[in-house]
Amino acid sequence: MLNHCFLCRNEDLKEMLESSKESLKLEAMKRIVGLIAKGKNASELFPAVVKNVASKNIELKKLVYVYLVRYAEEQQDLALLSISTFQRALKDPNQLIRASALRVLSSIRVPIIVPIMMLSIKEASTDLSPYVRKTAAHAIQKLYSLDPDQKEHLIEVIEKLLKDKSTLVAGSVVMAFEEVCPDRIDLIHKNYRKLCNLLVDVEEWGQVVIIHMLTRYARTQFVSPHSSSFIALIICLCQVVMAVSQLYWHLAPKHELSIITKSLVRLLRSHREVQYIVLQNIATMSIQRKGMFEPFMKSFYVRSTDATHIKTLKLEILTNLANEANISTILREFQTYVKSQDKAFAAATIQAIGRCATNISEVTDTCLNGLVLLLSNRDETVVAESVVVIKKLLQTQPSQHSDIIKHMAKLFDNITVSMARASILWLMGEYCEHVPKIAPDVLRKMAKTFTSEEDIVKLQTVNLAAKLYLTNSKQTKLLTQYILNLGKYDQSYDIRDRTRFIRQLIVPNEKSGALSKYARRILMAPKPAPVLQSAFKDRDRFQLGTLSHSLNSQANGYLELSDWPAVAPDQSVRIVEVVEPAGAPVFGKSKPGKSDEKFYSDSEEEEEEEEEGSSSEDSSSSSSEANLRFVLTSFCVHVESESESESEENSDDSNKSSSSQSDSEKKKKTLKNKKLQQQKPDSKDRYWSHAV
């Protein structure tokens, strides 16, 4: 019934589209776009819709192109029939129509129209509308994926668009650069400072792309900054905060990293999707720089409303931040988490307690005793995880904790989780000499239930039998032979192979040869204690904020971050000659004239001369630092300028309200403001000269 109604609706829409009245066609297109917005499939209407692509009604044409952008890739044959119409639309007076036509053309994934697409992209890249040029940058990526052989021609277009001064185009062309030719760093040299200046006004997604590109650029073109100070970060957008944070992490000196801490912690109030990415990056940072986030430790306390993956990441960060000073506070917090109804989180908390016990020797015994108490917990998951962690901790000092091993052996019958049972059996076998009376009894119990156990438990049972045969053969010889016979005919080939190997190793015969002489050294060799490490320990090999870092696996298209060069490359590649218009003042090169002398004091002139002298002496050593500062402070320039203008306005308002101020004082204030405005270009130009 519903399908019949849907077909009837499509027929009605087709009739409206084929009507001679523009109003009916427009109404039909509005309904169709509405269906698409609701997720309905309107591809059957493609032939009726595409007929109206040449309509003279602008509003109708816009809706038609919205539809075509959605379905051109699915209905390529029908779209090809109207390709001449799309080409004519590229000359349409309306910029939205021109951009939509290019978008539809680039959505037709047919190799035969590659030359047409290439020509259209070249024409659109010189369009007067920045919106059309932005669309051309997007089309570059689509054409490259369709025909990689066009790379050289596309690079020419990218080089042209990189010179574009529009903030609307900057992010899109950098994205095209990253997709098509990320290794062509030479294309960035001349546009480096321009991109830094445009960065503040680019939309947030464009900012993220540009910042990632500038991070790679800085790591290849500048030496590592050892001593430089950067302006504080003032950013509010989530994506941009993450992008700038990774830029600071990879580029800034170590003592400047605390600048990004508050911004990252503030993002933890965002949606859980944002929290997840931010916490992943903080988890990586907190391993190397505990001091960055230690003052904000309470921000990582788990809330009852947090999702499991958020809780686990916060737990990871708290464990990374643990030290002798705050461990008591963290352990009290962990005691609450163990009681959580979220079993996966409770198990992760027990693992975190084990890590704290390993990393901080002062609390090892305290953590171990606490985990032993958890063995009496009613929750099977908690008990099982406690057994696994205790097993790892006991490997550090087994002789001092024989009582704990005995206690775990008594609980063996009540534990049903296979990993926990296997851990206890491993402990019995590894330290059987410390519990000579209990270990054979455990083996006797396992002989009864061997056939019904999981494979991991069976393997540890075979190992336990072999070790007891070597250390206490009088009491366990028959038990061992019985278990080896059971394993010989087990359904799992792993169990059968292990059984045959153990039999040849511990039971000497003519075929076993000399290997049986070393059975004790092989099976009873001392094992190194396991190192409990963070799951984020090795993630720093990936750039923060990338998909590869989030997945802990190199994703397609990931670009590795280069090491700092030992010697800075040629800095002159970023020098751009600016042709000043006739009559325009050249800032930073000419001294103030006589008419300006009354605006400057002698002390200020001396300071300027000293600054110019020192900059010429240290230009070679400070160029890399200045360039890095130029990247990192681009976000703050507009904020500073706004604050300056606000302060000037406030001062003017206060002057007007003050009745006691004389006319001469007001004139001095005005002259001072003019002086600031005149000084501004000079200081900016001096900064640019340092950044060369």
UniProtKB/TrEMBL annotation:
Gene3D superfamilies hit by this protein: Leucine-rich Repeat Variant (1.25.10.10)
Clathrin/coatomer adaptor adaptin-like N-terminal domain: residues covered: 10-507
Ranges annotated as spanning the membrane: none
Biased composition (Basic and acidic residues): 681-692
A Pfam family that the UniProt record links to this protein: Adaptin_N
Organism superkingdom: Eukaryota
Amino acid composition bias (Basic residues), ranges on this chain: 667-677
Membrane topology classification: Peripheral membrane protein
One Gene Ontology cellular component: endomembrane system
Keyword Cytoplasm in record: no
UniProt keyword Metal-binding present: no
Region (Disordered): 584-626, 640-692
InterPro entries assigned: AP_beta (IPR026739), AP_complex_bsu_1_2_4 (IPR016342), ARM-like (IPR011989), ARM-type_fold (IPR016024), Clathrin/coatomer_adapt-like_N (IPR002553)
Biological process (GO), any one: vesicle-mediated transport
Keywords carried by this UniProt record: Membrane, Protein transport, Transport
Subcellular location: Endomembrane system
Gene Ontology molecular function: clathrin binding
Acidic residues bias (residue ranges): 602-615, 642-652
Record field: compositional bias (Low complexity): 616-625
Family classification: Belongs to the adaptor complexes large subunit family.
UniProt name for this protein: AP complex subunit beta
Organism: Cyprinus carpio (Common carp)
